[in-house]
Design brief:
By secondary structure, this protein is mainly α. The protein has helices at residues 11-21, 32-47, 51-66, 85-88, and strands spanning 69-71, 80-82. The longest helix has 16 residues, at 32-47.
Amino acid sequence: MTYSWKKGMSIDDQWQSWQDNNPLDKIPDVDTDVLKEALIKDLSYVSSMDVKEYTLYQKWCEVKDRYPTVETNSFFDDKPAMQNLNKVL
């Protein structure tokens, strides 16, 4: 999927540009049953947390997304390493 945004474009122009570059019939449909099950599972998991635990969980997810790691399997230890070290520095 591609999209080109130009400064000063209205929302309607942006939508039209996106539609021109991404035919809607080529976009796969979302299976609502799978989406519903994932949403229920996620909400069930976080609903059991108190506010502090939930906040910590959200920050942990944010860090995991922003700074992904890869498992290293050296002879002496199994420590994760930063996937893209340039992103950190």
